[in-house]
Amino acid sequence: MGEMPVEDQVRAVAAAWATALVGNDASRIAEFMTDEWVYVAATGAVAKADVLAWIASGRLVHHTMTVVGADRVVRAGDAVVYTARKSSSGIWDGASYTADEWITEVFAPVDGRWRCVFSQKTDVAH
Questions:
Q1: Is the Cα torsion angle 38, 102, 67, 83 positive or negative in sign?
Q2: If DSSP codes are grouped into helix, strand and coil, which group holds residue 64?
Q3: Which pLDDT does position 2 carry in this prediction?
Q4: Paired sense of beta strands 113-123 and 33-41, if any
Q5: Running DSSP on this structure, what letter comes out for residue 3?
Q6: How many CB atoms lie within 10 A of CB 39?
Q7: Residue 126 — very low, low, confident or very high, per pLDDT cuts 50/70/90?
Q8: 50, 63, 55, 57: which is closest to 97 by C-alpha?
Q9: 3-class DSSP assignment, residue 12
Q10: Of the residues 21, 59, 100, 123, which has the maximum number of CB atoms within 10 A of its CB?
């Protein structure tokens, strides 16, 4: 998985995944997730297949995704927990949106690559 420190490897994978998300290519996005990946939002847990279907159908479109400020990367055994504030924009269900959120993701080494196992987003309080 490379010579750079694990924390920097995960930062690089998180950045590449954000680029893939903005590209809105569901098959490319899926490469960053484990089969068991789940996304947790205010409405509850959403399965990988559902999120990818939304992207493939155009129901969910990402236009921008930017890390705001410093991120936090912490090793937890073989896994790594990545936390960052992200600003994003796009289209959800035909309506434009902007979001300012904290995201926490768990990455694990799978088949020689870092893949995301879990993502949770929380709106930033203003």
A1: negative
A2: strand
A3: 58
A4: parallel
A5: S
A6: 19
A7: confident
A8: 63
A9: helix
A10: 21
CA distance 56 to 49: 10
- Contact (CB, 8 A) for 99 and 89: yes
Distance from C-alpha of 41 to C-alpha of 43, rounded to nearest angstrom: 5
C-alpha–C-alpha distance, residues 20 and 6, integer Å: 21
Residue with tokens 């569901």: 26
- Which two tokens mark 90? 């796009």
Q: Which pLDDT value is given to residue 3?
A: 83
If 0-12 CB within 10 Å is exposed, 13-18 middle and 19+ buried, where does residue 21 land?
A: buried
Residue with tokens 């035909």: 94
Which string of b and e fits 85-103 if b means at least 16 CB within 10 Å?
A: bbebebeeeeeeeebebeb
Between the alpha carbon of residue 53 and those of residues 12, 58, 61, 93, the distances in Å are 25, 8, 11, 13
Q: Where are the alpha helices (DSSP H) in the chain?
A: 6-23, 26-30, 48-57
Domains and CATH numbers, the chain: 6-123 (3.10.450.50)
pLDDT tens-digit readout, 16-35? 999 999 999 999 999 999 99
